[in-house]
Write a structure and sequence with these properties.
Elements: E1 49-54, H1 69-77, E2 98-103, H2 114-126, E3 131-136, H3 142-153, E4 157-161, H4 185-191, E5 201-205, E6 216-219, H5 220-226, H6 228-239, E7 243-249, H7 271-279, E8 285-292, H8 303-322
Helix pairs in contact: 1-8, 2-3, 3-4, 5-6, 6-7, 7-8
C-alpha cells in the first residue's frame, strides 16, 4: 500500500508533505496543466527556464490541429514529474527554475498581426535573461521566435530536427509581409540574416528541396549510416561557439512513434536516436528552443505528446547538468563473470 492510502472505512490517514522539486506531490492524472507541474507565472525573470505555448496552426499545409499541441504536451509532461530523470538519476528541478507562462495571445481575426505578437511575447522572456522553450503550434512559429532571439544574441546557428527542410521559396506580400507558411520560414530566416546556414544543421530530413540554402543536411539515411552519436558530434563541430537555436518538429520521428502530427513522413527517426543526439549536444551554447507540430487529434494514446514533452524535459535536464547536476548510470552487467555451472 502506498503512503497516504487507506484500508477499510476507519483506516488512519497519513498526510504527505508536498515536494517543491519535480518529484510529484500530487497524482499525475489531475490538476492544472503546466509543464511538469511547474508554477504558472505572469512574467519570467533572469535564470528561469520559461515554457510558453504558441497555439498557432493557420500556417499548416496539410492537416490542422497543432493549436491544441501546447495543452497536450503539458498534460503528457505530468508523468515526467513523477520520478528522477533517466538517464542521470537526478531531480532536474532542483537545479533549474522551471516556470510556465501559459500561451501567447494571438488574434486570429487579424492574422497579419500574429508574427509580431509571437516575437514580442518571446522577446519579453529572452530580454529578461530567461531561457525560452516554446510549445507549438505549427512550425512557422520558429520564424518570429528566431527574430526575438537574434535581437539579443545576433545571428544564430540553427539545430533543426525534422522530416522537412522548411526552406522552400517564400512568397512576400505586396506590403512586404512574410508568408505564413510552415514550409518556407527557414529560407526567410536565412534571407533575413537571422541564421548562419554554414553553421546550421538539419537532422532526420526525408523530403526533397531543390535549394537547401547552404544548410548542412544530415538526412535520415545518413543518420542510419553514421549513427546518432557521430551525427551529434558533427553538429557540434559545425556550430562551434555560435549561439544556437534548437527546433524539434515532432515529425522528425517516424509516424509509428509520432502519429499525431500534420505532415507525417514514413521512414523517420526512432525516439532513442533523437534523445541520444539531444543528450550529446551538451556543451553547445543553446540560447532557446521550441518543439512543434503536435496535433493531438491524430495521436494514439498520447504517444506523440509524450515524445514532445520528453524533448522539453531533456532540455531541462541539459540545463540542470550545466548547473551542476551529476548524472549517474546503472553499472554495466558483468556477463560471463561467473562461468559455467
Amino acid at each position: 500500500m502506498l503512503p497516504g492510502t487507506t484500508s477499510g472505512a476507519h483506516a488512519h490517514f497519513t498526510s504527505i508533505t508536498p515536494s517543491l522539486s519535480c518529484i510529484a506531490s500530487e497524482q499525475t492524472y489531475s490538476g492544472t496543466h503546466t509543464f511538469a507541474r511547474a508554477p504558472r507565472v505572469k512574467a519570467a525573470k533572469a535564470g528561469d527556464f520559461a515554457v510558453l505555448g504558441v497555439p498557432l496552426d493557420i500556417a499548416t499545409s496539410n492537416r490542422p490541429g497543432a493549436r491544441l499541441g501546447p495543452d497536450a504536451v503539458r498534460a503528457a509532461s505530468a508523468q515526467l514529474a513523477e520520478l528522477k530523470a533517466y538517464p542521470g538519476g537526478f531531480d532536474p528541478m532542483s537545479y533549474v527554475n522551471v516556470v510556465d507562462l501559459g500561451d501567447a495571445w494571438l488574434d486570429y481575426g487579424f492574422p497579419q498581426t500574429i508574427p509580431a505578437a509571437i516575437e514580442e511575447a518571446a522577446h519579453s522572456v529572452v530580454s529578461a535573461g530567461a531561457f525560452l522553450c516554446a510549445l507549438g503550434g505549427d512550425h512557422f512559429i520558429s520564424y518570429p521566435l528566431l527574430k526575438a532571439h537574434a535581437r539579443e544574441h545576433g545571428q544564430l546557428a540553427l539545430i533543426h530536427f525534422d522530416a522537412h527542410t522548411d526552406t522552400w521559396t517564400p512568397r512576400i506580400g505586396k506590403d512586404g509581409s512574410v508568408e505564413l507558411n510552415h514550409g518556407t520560414m527557414f529560407a526567410q530566416a536565412i534571407d533575413d540574416g537571422l541564421i548562419d546556414p554554414s553553421r546550421s544543421s538539419q537532422i532526420g530530413i526525408r523530403t526533397w528541396v531543390d535549394d537547401p540554402k547552404g544548410m548542412n543536411i544530415f538526412d535520415n539515411m545518413l543518420v542510419a549510416e553514421m549513427g546518432a552519436p557521430a551525427i551529434a558530434e558533427a553538429v557540434k563541430e559545425l556550430a562551434g561557439n555560435s549561439p544556437c537555436y534548437l527546433t524539434v518538429d515532432i515529425d522528425c520521428l517516424d509516424p509509428a512513434f509520432a502519429p499525431g502530427t500534420g505532415t507525417p513522413v514514413t521512414g523517420g527517426l526512432m525516439p532513442r536516436e533523437l534523445f541520444t543526439m539531444l543528450r550529446k549536444l551538451d556543451g553547445l551554447n543553446i540560447v532557446g528552443c521550441d518543439v512543434v507540430e503536435v496535433a493531438p487529434a491524430y495521436d494514439h494514446g498520447g504517444v506523440t505528446a509524450l515524445a514532445a514533452a520528453t524533448v522539453v524535459y531533456e532540455q531541462v535536464c541539459r540545463v540542470a547538468r550545466r548547473n551542476g547536476a551529476k548524472a549517474a548510470s546503472y553499472p554495466v552487467p558483468q556477463v560471463g563473470k561467473h562461468g559455467a555451472n
